[in-house]
Amino acid sequence: MSDNEACLLKSPTRTPWNKGKLIGAKPPLRPKHVWSIRTRLMVEGRTRDLAMFNLAIDSKLRGCDVVAIRVEDVAACGYTADRATVRQKKTGRPVRFELSEQTRQAIDDYLKAASKRPGEFLFTGRRGPNTSMTTRQYARLVSEWIGSVGLDPRLFGTHSLRRTKATLIYRRTGNLRAIQSTVRYLGIEVDDALAIAEQVDV
Q1: How many CA atoms does the CB half-sphere of 129 hold within 13 Å?
Q2: How much helix, strand and coil, in percent to the nearest 5, is found in the chain?
Q3: DSSP-derived 3-state class of residue 189
């Protein structure tokens, strides 16, 4: 036996990086899960969390974009608009999305309760009013919401919120191009996609 072969036999086997970990795309939430989380947040009087949860579902944005939203992005005139446009951090491209009536109400309630004004981050962090919530803080909140309704936070995450409405739109309409323009932001049929999204409530 050569020295190299002996060395290979003696070396401990390397543990795979993903051993014991759940990997792959996070599944979307089901409508009953969405309503369970909403109800719990409403009952507990968590106006900020309810506004954030609803906004995340409607906007289909990445977590880094949800926490970067400023008051004027969704409520430039003091009350929440039907539609909003924000620039994505990852791509630098603007994305337009619709806000359902319940999301608008939740954001309006939060703006009033927190005395939020244009120029401020919608969801501020622990480091003061001039800083946004971090993506890590947001991910912890999402895990808490998910766990509060009996779901496994290891199976669902921030991306689950992003995929929820898009999946529902596709299941109800079968319109893949509309999904592509609302979720992948390919710039095709944007108005059609927004109109479809407005009709699909979750």
Answers
A1: 8
A2: 55, 10, 35
A3: coil
Exposed e or buried b for every residue in 91-107, given b needs 16+ CB within 10 A? eeeebbbbbbeebbebb
- What is d(CA 200, CA 34) in angstroms, rounded to the nearest whole number? 14
The candidate with the shortest Cα–Cα distance to 74, out of 64, 85, 58, 88, is: 85
Tokens of 12: 């401990």
* Cα 2 to Cα 7: distance, rounded to the nearest angstrom: 9
pLDDT in tens, 123-158: 998 887 789 999 999 999 999 999 999 999 999 999
Task: Output the pTM of the full model.
Answer: 0.75
Task: Please list the residues that pair with 95 across neighbouring strands.
Answer: 86
Q: What is the DSSP string of 45-111?
A: T-HHHHHHHHHHHHH---HHHHHH-BHHHHHTTSS--SEEEEE-TTT--EEEEE--HHHHHHHHHHH
Per-residue pLDDT tens for 48-71? 999 999 999 999 999 999 999 999
